[in-house]
Design goal:
506 residues; alpha/beta; 7-stranded mixed sheet; 6-stranded mixed sheet; 16 helices; globular
Length: 506
Amino acid sequence: MTERKYVLAIDQGTTSSRTILFNHKGENVSTGQLEHKQIFPHAGWVEHDPLEIWKNVRETVGIALSHAEANHHDIAAIGITNQRETTIIWDRKTGEPVYNAIVWQDARTQEIVDRLAADGGVDRFRPIVGETLSSYASLTKIMWILENVPGVRERAEAGELAFGNPDTWLIWNLTGGTDGGIHVTDVTNASRTMLMDLHTLQWREDICEIAGIPMSLLPEIKSSSEIYGYGRQGGLLPGVPIAGDLGDQQAATFGQACFTPGMAKNTYGTGCFMLMNTGDKPQMSDNGLITTVCYKIGDQKPVYALEGSIAVTGSLIQWLRDNLNLIPTSPDVEPLAASVKDNGGVYFVPAFNGLFAPYWKGDARGAIVGLTRYNTKAHIARAALEATAFQTREVLDAMEADSGVKLGELRVDGGMTANNLLMQFQADILNTPVVLPEVAETTALGAAYAAGIAVGFWNGEQDVIDNWNEAKRWTPQMGDDERNRQLRLWKKAVTRTFDWVDDDVL
C-alpha cells in the first residue's frame, strides 16, 4: 500500500460523467458529477459531444478533489470506466472529433448489419467475437462514420485518425492528447467492438478488412489493470498513473466481487446489464447472450462472462419524465407506481430502439398493451418499472440455461436500486434473493480497484472481497401461480413488438 490516501475513478456514463475518490476501505470520500446533452438527430439515433464529455470530466475531477480538500499528491492511481460500444473517431493532430460520438443505444446501422449478415448470417463472427451482429457493437458504428462523413475514410486510411470508446478518448486526453497522448483500450472494451478475438485478445485483421476499417484506427489492447501512462503536466492530475480501465458493466462486476464462476450481478442504469462470471474460458451462448471478457489483471489469465444486455430501463423513467411529463423527477415514479396495488393489466415493452437480449430484434418497437378505461398514469408508471424486472428475468433464464447454474442470489447496483418497489418486484419475479452492497457505486469502485491493484494500493481480489458488505436484501414474496401468470402476459406483450419496422415505418 502506498502512502497516498485515495484512488480516483472516472465513470463516464451514458447520461453523465462522475469522478469519485475512494479510500482504502473502498468508501466513497467525495464525488463530482455532471450530465451531458443527449442528441437525437433522427428517430433511433443517439449521439453525444465528445468535447463536452472531456470538458465535464475535467470539471468533475476538480469538484471531487475540492470536496475532499485533496490534490494530485493524494491520488495513488486513476481508474476509468465508461459506456461501452459508444464510438468516437478523432484527428490525432488536432484532437477534434470527426463526428459526434455514436452512442451504444443508436440504431441507425441496421442496414449495415443486414449487409454484413447477407454473407454468413448474423452469427458469422460470433464464434470469434462472442456476439451476434447488431447495431449495438462499435463495428457498425465505425463503418457508418467511415461511409457517411465526407473525407473521413481517406483520412483514416492515411493514419490521421484514431478510434476509441470513451475510455480510450479520456486516456488519450489525460495523457497529453495531441502532445503524446496514449492510444490504448483494455480487453473488456475491446471485446465489445466485435473486432477482437476473444481467444487471442488481439484485433482481427480479417474482420477489419471485411468491414473496411483500417487497422491504424485501432488502439493498442491492454489488460484491465496495469499502468498505461501518467497524467499530463499542467493538468489536475500531473504524473498520477492511469492504471485501471474496464467497460462499465465489467467494472461493476469487479466492484461487486463476482470473482467465482457462477456469481452474477445486475446494474440498473440507463439500460440493464447482467453479467455472470464463467471462468477462464469463453462460453458461447445458445440463448441470445453475449460472451465477453469480464476482466484481466496484469499478466494473469483473462476471466470471461456471459452478459445479457437490456437497452431501456432507467431511460424509460426519464422518458416518462421528459417526453410525457408524467412525473416531475425520476424518483417520483415510485410513489406514483405505489399508489395502485398492481399494474391493472398494463404491460410496457420499451423496445424504443429494438430489443436486445435475449431476442436481438432490431425491427421491434415499443408498445403499451392491455389498456382499458380503468387505467391511470399510475398503472403506466408501475408497468414501466415492472418492465425492468421482467426483462431481467428473461435474461436470467437465458443465463441459467447457458451456464447450467441456478443463481443463488443476484447482486445489484445502479441508480434504480433506490426504488424499493422495483427491487421487491425484481426478487418476486426472479424467485431469487436480490442483494445490494453498502457501496452502491460499484461501477466506479471496480475501476478504482483495478487501478489500485496495479500500483499496490490494494493487494488483489481478496481486498475487494473483504471490502464488500451487504446493505439490504429483498426476498421473494410472490406465489408461483401469480408469478407464472405475470410472466405469461409479459411474454405475450413482448411478441406484440416484433417486426414493427418495415420500409415505410421510421
